[in-house]
Amino acid sequence: MSKLEQLEAFVKVIEEGSFAAAGAKLCLTPAAISKQLKTLESALGVELIKRTTRNLHLTEAGNRYFQDAKTVLEKLLEADHAILSTNREPAGVLKILSTRYYAEQVLLKKLPQFLEAYPKINVKIELAERLPDLMREDLDFLFGVTIKPINSDLARQALGTTRYVFCASPAYLAKYGTPKQPQDLKLHRYLTHAMRQKPNFISFKGQPDVYVESYLWLNDSKALRECALKGLGIVKLHDYVVKQQLADGSLVEIYPQFVEPTIPVYCYYRQARAMDPKVKAFTNFYQAPDQSNTTTNDKKPPQL
């Protein structure tokens, strides 16, 4: 038995939760799976899995080894797939997680032309404002975000730019007053996005961060906008989310003197899949004008 087979057996046991289930996936008997695992543990000189009559538990060493082994297997499969698919016509299922705005304004608007150009590609889209692990969830793209996702080994391309806007409804400001300085925000009802890395610490250009107790948490920008329109509090959102409301006066921008610079909005994808014809076709089709692909190296990623 090869080291690769041992790694596959080990990873599959953890993923499936038993020797029998792992054996069924790999077309091996539970005894064969157990033998491969024992050989692997013997070669490493450590116990990877604690076995009881009912459960399997990773040891501390086993947990570290599992993560590394899974990454090695995934990269090997991706490398095989990339080589085998180099000369193929773009085909298969593209799995995309997108923010709602960029899905509606960019992704879906151009999708008919994309599918017409590549009739053998099918597209699966999830609309959500969350940070996925692209590798673990087997996603091809994270579309329309400013925040750096969980994966570190990713490529990206720019889709556009945005800036953050603090705003509230005229009714709220009439009732509670308009804050003038950053510290004034502590006296107000602040509505925050639940996915932000530091939701209670608010950054202002050229000013120290301000700590606030959030009045309401939501994981959707559009829902936060609706709450602000109903007079529930002050919210910080991308300019494209509140553009129309600022124009018609249903929301009022506050802290204009602390306007932050614009930041890029990105589409992220796994570098290992860049050679896949369907992935390459999608990145080329949705490439923003005068923008080039770059790898992720942000030291302090912006928030949602």
Your description of this structure?
The protein has about 300 residues and is an alpha/beta fold. It is about 40% helix and about 25% strand. A 6-stranded mixed β-sheet has the order 4-3-5-14-6-15. Strands 11-8-12-7-13 form a 5-stranded mixed β-sheet.
- What is the fold-level CATH name, i.e. the topology of the largest domain? D-Maltodextrin-Binding Protein, domain 2
The amount of beta strand, in percent, is 15-25%
CATH class of the largest domain: Alpha Beta
How many distinct beta strands?
A: 15
Mean pLDDT: 85
The SSE order reads HHHEEHEHEEEEHEEEEHEHEEHE
What does the largest sheet look like?
Answer: 6 strands, mixed
What spatial form do the alpha-carbon principal axes imply? Answer: globular
Residue stretches low in confidence (pLDDT < 50, at least 5 long) are: 290-304
Spell out the key features of this protein.
304 residues, alpha/beta, Arc Repressor Mutant, subunit A, D-Maltodextrin-Binding Protein, domain 2, 3 domains, five-stranded mixed sheet, 9 helices, 38% helix
